[in-house]
Design brief:
about 240 residues; 8 strands; 5-stranded antiparallel β-sheet
Length: about 240
């Protein structure tokens, strides 16, 4: 900038004159303004181009984010569908297993009735169930009897239920007739294929049952011999069969 300091404006004005000096100054100002304008336009265009590029990049990033969010939501939906399908499959499998067990049980029951040649002659106890009720020490029982004779005639007789356990920490046993309002007539049976005997009973609060003895008594008739058969059940096993 030392060369500018050497310029003497008075000398320039004296040589060129006032009018020419003013024109020269005006041209310099116009030149400076034009150069500044062009440079400003250049940098402004560069900034606009840079902003547009950044905006396009930002839009691309937003679009990628939207696509990724959609993909995540799609995967979440597919995962939920798979989870629900898996749960449904497990439920169906459980239902099929239950139905299979039920069919097998029914098949075995009717096989006893309709195909007695596969079994021992006589009346058998197909099932014994004891169900606790909402009342303390109060239970319901159900006994299913099936006849297995090759020639079906009416099987006649009765059943007896005896509960074995402990009363006040001492061995004891009690008959169903003593803990219920059931009579011997209610425990009698007369059937050709099968019969269900059921009722209710209440055990003493101090009595702890351990075993159930179910006795089947066949009456003597012209086609049937007198027969008495005792079948023992563990109490917990009989109760567990109802769960």
């Amino acid at each position: 900038m030392s060369w500018l300091a050497k310029i003497n404006l008075n000398v320039v004005i004296n040589k060129l004159g006032s009018f020419r000096s003013a024109i020269l100054l005006l041209l310099l100002i116009i030149t400076c303004l034009f150069c500044g304008y062009r440079m400003g336009n250049f940098f402004h265009g560069y900034q606009i181009q840079t902003i547009n590029q950044q905006k396009i990049r930002l839009d691309n990033l937003y679009e990628q984010q939207v696509q990724q969010v959609k993909q995540i939501h799609t995967l979440e939906v597919e995962l939920e569908v798979e989870r629900m399908a898996n749960m449904r499959s497990q439920q169906l499998l459980t239902e099929i297993e239950k139905d299979h067990f039920k069919v097998k049980k029914e098949l075995a029951f009717y096989e006893k009735v309709m195909a007695p040649e596969k079994q021992v002659d006589g009346v058998v106890i197909d099932d014994v169930t004891i169900t606790p009720t909402g009342s303390l020490n109060h239970f319901r029982f159900q006994v299913v009897l099936v006849q297995q004779q090759a020639r079906k005639r009416y099987a006649r007789g009765s059943i007896e239920l005896t509960f074995h356990g402990s009363l006040d920490n001492k061995p004891d046993q009690v008959s169903l007739l003593n803990v219920s309002s059931i009579s011997k007539k209610d425990l009698a049976f007369s059937f050709k294929y099968f019969q269900i005997i059921e009722g209710e009973f209440t055990l003493s609060e101090n009595f702890l049952p351990e075993k159930l003895v179910l006795t089947t008594v066949l009456d003597k008739t012209s086609w049937q011999e007198h027969r008495r058969v005792d079948q023992k059940y563990v109490w917990q096993d009989v109760i567990a069969n109802n769960k």
